[in-house]
């Protein structure tokens, strides 16, 4: 079983069979580095499952991008098109996508799909809430350690500017933090 599928199943307490059924209904997208992730239509919501690569969610304020989250293989993203947050591929990536209308149709037609989507939604909401709370409570060191637990090889795959933006520190400070751990 592929690593992203194993992570999806274990984190969301769903079976491999359920995830494979959902993935079979989704569109596979190959993203080049720097590709913006956007729903098929600007006003549509959708579900994305990252199969490989690293993406980042960010906000822009006065021309400066601020990374708020990194996504990697096995992560899910319910994307609702907004002007507040964007998602971009930082490496070549493969993601699966299904539109919001089709998600609703699947849920209406199948209790198992409805439960699967509910579990994915609950997990993502819990993760996001924890992430936002920790962003204000955690020190740079704690955020650094958490990031490298989630994506151990991120330093080798993503430019430092994105990592320092996420941590809220400067490149020189990152070197200090990294040198200690």
TrEMBL record:
One Pfam family name from the record? cNMP_binding
- Entry annotated with the keyword Transferase: yes
List the GO molecular function terms: kinase activity
Q: Name the keywords, alphabetized.
A: Kinase, Transferase
Residue span, Cyclic nucleotide-binding domain: 10-77
Q: CDD domains in the record, alphabetically?
A: CAP_ED (cd00038)
Identification of the protein by name: cAMP-binding domain of CRP or a regulatory subunit of cAMP-dependent protein kinases
């Amino acid at each position: 079983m592929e690593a992203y599928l194993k992570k999806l199943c274990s984190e969301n307490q769903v079976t491999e069979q359920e995830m494979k059924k959902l993935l079979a209904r989704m569109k596979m997208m190959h993203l080049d580095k720097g590709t913006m992730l956007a729903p098929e239509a600007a006003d549509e919501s959708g579900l994305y499952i990252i199969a490989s690569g690293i993406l980042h969610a960010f906000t822009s304020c006065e021309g400066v991008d601020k990374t708020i989250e990194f996504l990697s293989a096995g992560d899910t993203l319910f994307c609702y098109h907004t002007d507040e947050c964007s998602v971009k591929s930082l490496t070549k990536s493969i993601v699966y996508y299904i539109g919001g209308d089709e998600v609703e149709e699947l849920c209406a037609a199948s209790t198992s799909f409805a439960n699967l989507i509910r579990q994915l939604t609950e997990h993502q909401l819990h993760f996001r809430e924890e992430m936002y709370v920790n962003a204000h409570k955690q020190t740079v060191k704690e955020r650094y350690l958490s990031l490298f637990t989630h994506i151990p090889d991120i330093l080798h795959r993503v430019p430092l500017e994105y990592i320092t933006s996420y941590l809220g520190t400067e490149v020189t400070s990152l070197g200090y933090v990294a040198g200690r751990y």
